[in-house]
Each structure stands twice: as C-alpha cells, then as structure tokens.
Design the sequence.
C-alpha cells in the first residue's frame, strides 16, 4: 500500500505469512493494541479527507478529526484488521513559545 504523495510504502501481509516472519502469535486487536502508526498530514483538509476515506473503506474512526493543544489537528482510526493509526497535521506557526 502506498501512502501520500511521498510514496510511503506500507507492506500488508496475510496473517499466516506475517506470523511466520514475526515468529509470535498475532495480537487480538479487539482486546489490545500492538502498535499505533502515526503519519503526517500536510493540512487539516488532508486529515478530514483521510478520515472520510477510512469510513468509506470500512475502517473505524475511533477519534474523529479534532484540534489538540491549539497547534495540532488529527484523528485516530483502526484499519480492517483493528490496527490503530493516527494522522496528524502540525501547524508549527501556532506552537506555543
């Protein structure tokens, strides 16, 4: 899967193949989290667009797009396998001194 204009690549594997690489059992994402993958957005609009795409694809937006600390805007979502992601736009011009 390619993410963003910078062509950030995320490799997706079937569970059996993944468990052979990791040599661990697979986490039940309904009961626990194994990772939170954060990606950068270029604008608030990009955060909103990604949240909509997640919904359209059947993912779960567990933290809708919102402002945080006056200079960050982001959302949290889970993909179809329950892995948690965060997308965040940081407006450094509003960063408190």
Sequence:
């Amino acid at each position: 899967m390619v993410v963003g204009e910078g062509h950030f690549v995320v490799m997706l594997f079937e569970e059996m193949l993944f468990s052979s690489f990791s040599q661990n059992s697979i986490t039940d994402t309904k009961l626990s989290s194994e990772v939170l993958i954060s990606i950068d957005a270029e604008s608030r609009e990009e955060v909103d667009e990604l949240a909509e795409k997640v919904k359209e694809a059947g993912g779960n937006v567990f933290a809708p797009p919102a402002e945080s600390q006056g200079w960050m805007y982001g959302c949290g979502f889970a993909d179809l396998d329950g892995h948690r992601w965060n997308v965040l736009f940081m407006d450094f011009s509003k960063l408190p001194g």
Observations:
- DSSP finds two helices and six strands in the chain.
- The first strand starts at residue 2 and ends at 3.
- The chain has a mean pLDDT of 89.
- The beta strands are 2-3, 8-9, 36-40, 60-68, 72-78, 84-90.
